[in-house]
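Task: sequence design from structure.
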């Protein structure tokens, strides 16, 4: 999953997301969630990291289950599927709501945790023809983020050295960070202009991103999965 073209991956997973929006099927939702988790683990995502990310998702899923269970339209109508029979539609409604949360979270994490951010921007530029001015801006923003995190830790350590206690989102911490971020962005813009970076001139790429056979196969597999689900269920 990590080597698949991010633009093709984005289109494929977005198609699956829209398809799930029109399907009220908890079995399909849980199947998509399990497939997403398996794909992430096979792509090298650490299990501990994935479990930490899933904690808030599971909390929301449990809340959606009880919401769907409590506010079901019909409490006595049995729900029959090709796989099993549920004697109470409240369970079906709750499982459908919870499964949809898990499926969307699984697809989102699958894209986020298996996609390199630089590779993503480059693929969007080559496949979606993203304007160069946005490409330079996004790449510059990604370069500033590590400095922002380091400055945040320094400011927090300075308050601790003076015996002051501040909350993580305190304005006393965020104001210096905001001022320095604006200063860094201005210096970076001036530096890029002085080096000839412009969003209006055509440039060649040192390593252009191309669509490969594995990317087409991934798109075909996702399309075949959606077609099979629509045909069988």
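Answer:
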């Amino acid at each position: 999953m990590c080597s698949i073209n991010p633009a093709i991956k984005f289109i494929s997973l977005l198609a699956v997301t829209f398809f799930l929006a029109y399907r009220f099927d908890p079995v399909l939702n849980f199947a998509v969630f399990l497939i997403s988790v398996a794909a992430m683990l096979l792509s090298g995502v650490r299990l501990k990291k994935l479990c930490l990310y899933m904690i808030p998702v599971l909390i929301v899923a449990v809340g959606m289950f009880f919401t769907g269970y409590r506010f079901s339209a019909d409490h006595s109508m049995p729900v029959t599927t090709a796989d099993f029979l549920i004697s109470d539609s409240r369970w079906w409604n709750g499982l459908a709501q919870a499964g949809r949360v898990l499926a969307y979270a699984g697809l989102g994490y699958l894209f986020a945790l298996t996609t390199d951010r630089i590779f993503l921007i480059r693929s969007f530029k080559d496949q979606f023809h993203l304007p160069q001015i946005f490409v330079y801006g996004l790449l510059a923003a990604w370069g500033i983020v590590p400095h922002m995190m380091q400055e945040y830790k320094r400011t927090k350590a300075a308050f601790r050295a003076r015996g002051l206690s501040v909350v993580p989102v305190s304005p006393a911490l965020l104001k210096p960070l905001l001022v320095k971020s604006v200063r860094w962005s201005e210096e970076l813009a001036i530096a890029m202009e002085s080096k000839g970076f412009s969003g209006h001139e055509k440039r060649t790429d040192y390593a252009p991103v191309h669509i490969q056979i594995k990317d087409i196969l991934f798109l075909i597999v996702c399309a075949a999965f959606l077609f099979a689900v629509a045909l069988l269920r």
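The chain is about 70% helix and 0% strand.
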